[in-house]
Amino acid sequence: MNERKDYQADQVFDHDFDGIQEYDNRLPNWWLWILWTTILFAFGYWLVFHTFGVAKLPRAQYEVEMQRAAATQLARGGTLDDAALELMATLPDRVAEGKTLFGTYCVACHSSRGEGLVGPNLTDAYWIHGGKPLDIHKVVTDGVLTKGMAAWGRQLGPKRVESVVAYVLTLRGTNVPGKAAEGQLVQ
């Protein structure tokens, strides 16, 4: 019948289950090629992304792109509003600058993590003069003399005030134990 030398007749295993018998057939080459390629790809992916960190994971690439888009949007200018200040709080460079300025000018009253000393706790959900980004910007710029908050607008300048506000926005909601809550609850 079949005269190929490499031909081997189908073989049936000795066991059966519910009257079903299993053939001992070799998997097709295309299927084996896909299997081994997938295994090699997964191993390479693991080495490149997770073990050696040669490339950034897609989530990290996304974060970089979002930061670049935020920086581009802020560079276009426009009016300063809540959205622009919230966008600044996503930029690591602005937040780092704000943290440095906060460490220089603000820690005497608000402590190093914003938990409050003489000044209020900046990490909880309670704000005396409003917790919206523009409210915080107004307080930092103009101060509140009756409460002892100095006006930093002229001393720091607009860009540095925005950086401090960006950093304070990152502190908001971290709930560091410190001074008791003051002001009204801001959602």
SSE order, as H and E? EEHHHHEHHHE
Helix content: 40-55%
- Which of globular, elongated, flat, extended, rod-shaped describes the shape? elongated
SS content category: mainly alpha
Number of helices: 7
Number of strands: 4
User: How are the strands of the largest sheet arranged?
Assistant: 1-2
Compose a concise summary of this entry.
With about 190 residues, the chain is mainly alpha-helical. Helix content is about 50%, strand content about 5%. The chain has helices spanning about 30-50, 60-75, 80-90, 90-110, 135-140, 155, 160-170; strands at about 10-15, 20-25, 125, 185.
Task: Note down, in words, how this protein is organized.
The structure is a single chain. The protein is mainly alpha-helical. The chain has 2 domains: 12-51, no CATH class; 68-185, Cytochrome Bc1 Complex, Chain D, domain 2. Helix content is 51%, strand content 7%. It is built from 7 helices and 4 strands, in the order ββααααβαααβ. It has helices spanning 29-51, 58-75, 82-88, 92-110, 133-142, 153-156, 158-171, and strands at 12-17, 20-23, 126-127, 184-185. The strands form 2 sheets. The protein has a two-stranded antiparallel ribbon with strand order 1-2. Helix 3 (82-88) crosses helix 7, helix 4 (92-110) crosses helix 7 and helix 5 (133-142) crosses helix 7. It is elongated, with a radius of gyration of 31 Å. It starts with 11 loop residues before the first strand and ends with a strand. The mean pLDDT is 88.
